[in-house]
UniProtKB/TrEMBL annotation:
It comes from Photobacterium sanctipauli. It is found in: Cell inner membrane. It is a multi-pass membrane protein. Pfam families: DctQ. This is TRAP transporter small permease protein. The keyword Membrane applies.
Amino acid sequence: MFFLKNIEEILASIAISITVLVVIVNVVLRYGFGFVVPWSEELSVICFIWAVYLGISSCYKHKLHMGVDVVVAMLPKKAKRPFKLAVSVFLLGLNILMAVLSYQYMMLSNKVTPVMGMSYFTINGVLFLCFVLMAIHTVKFIADDVAALKRPH
């Protein structure tokens, strides 16, 4: 249960740890021994991309992205909860659309990286994963918004 609840944070931590480790090892090898690991740059960039997109999903889950509350602040108290629900429904549609588009993009990935020979399918797969996770989080937000609507003000 802990793993599933914190999947983005765990995978992003692993990805950024690999990035840092590979870069440090490559710097030590380059300046200490004059040797470079040819695949280190590709691996560190790929892991960094995964860490960034998983971090985006994690921030979304915890509602840490910046928001503009000026419209909500101008609404009457009775309209704020329905407006937040409408925004959540809109975001669900947007996340589903982005998941579908990123899936299509991922399925078109037929190239491989020059050094490691890794398929871009694997690299682009984080887009699909990120938007699916964000859609799942949005469903939870909608459930919370509906529950809030049922509670008395």
